[in-house]
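Example 3.2
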Amino acid sequence: MKLSTTILRRILAPATLLVATWTILFYFAILGEVNDEVDDALEEYAEEISQRYLAGEDLPVDGNGTNNSFHFEPLGHGPIAHTLSFSDEDIWIESKNEWEPARVLRTTFVDAQGDNYLLTVMTPTIEKKDLKEALFFWTSLLCLSLIGVVALITIAALRRSLKPLYRLLGWLDGNRLDSTHTPLNNSTNIIEFERLNRAAADYDNHNRALYEQQKEFVGNASHEMQTPLAICSNRLDLLAETPLTEEQLGEVLRVQSTLSQLSRLNHSLLLLTKIESNQFHEREWVDIGELVRQRLEDIADIYAHKSICVEVEEEAPLVINMNRTLAEIATTNLLKNAFIHNTEGGTIVVRIGRNYWSVTNSGAPTSLDPERVFTRFYQPHKREGSTGLGLAITASVAHLYGFTPSYSYAPDSTSSRGLHTFSIRKEE
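Structure, written as tokens:
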């Protein structure tokens, strides 16, 4: 959820609750004031009637144009507690020939003979249902108008205030360590955003410096290692040509094998660093289907002793604008992986589509770890001569050109082997 949306919700929620609470309190306040005025008038009217009655004067006549009415009810002789109560009731109005809401006062008084009377005084009052509906309508209209105005003002204020933040986010999204550095141009008079700009720029400069140092270190280290490795290998070759016992010659060959593996590992690490540093700038249109068939001719001869059946299913041409060397490396790594980890008499199926290519090979009946299979040095079953970087290099090449590598496993229904599928796909 966007920051502006969150802030707007946090403003409108209490504002709506405040207006709703105010509406309820306003209704009861208006109703209380109306009742107070009517009750005061009823008390005065009841006092006038009781005094006239006790003085023997003429009482007001019902229907005198005021719609007020009253009646007496004898309560008997003897002392009683004085009562005074108000209530809302519906009364029949003869002049209107209908029931109307009224405010009713009931009070007691005693005449000179000690007889008690209950005096009931009634006067028409406002229709509280209509008052509720009117208040609800107008306050709802006020609430919606107020919320709408507050929302518009808040959105406008947030958009204007948060422009520096959105510019900073856009700069961070487009800023990559392996791309040309674009300075942050995000001037603002908001202190917090200015501090955020400085912090982001400082972190970017620091990360770029570390990145360049790391890239330079890895490159220099790899080149520096190649020289002593080549010297050691040459000296071992010379040593192997001298008279040695069979045991000594075996040791020399094992050391040469180790040095060869170390050299391949060094080359792979250097290649991986160059890929992640985006140092392969040359591009051309590469037909993956054609490249797969070329690589298969070379690799299939090497592993002909395994009698592996290879099929290529090209649903649609896949042509990518990329560095040809990286395309060859990624394709070779996938195919070599399929041959190396295959079984005797196994199968390899290469599928090529408009936005993907995949390699499926038969192999061990157990799944690899999909989360780690494309990470460096992941080897569930260590194989001699393997650097553990082939799939990691393939994944780096895929990411460089917007593709996503993935792995899946399924049991082979025709044998006890498993089917391992490595895919390179671009989401549309």
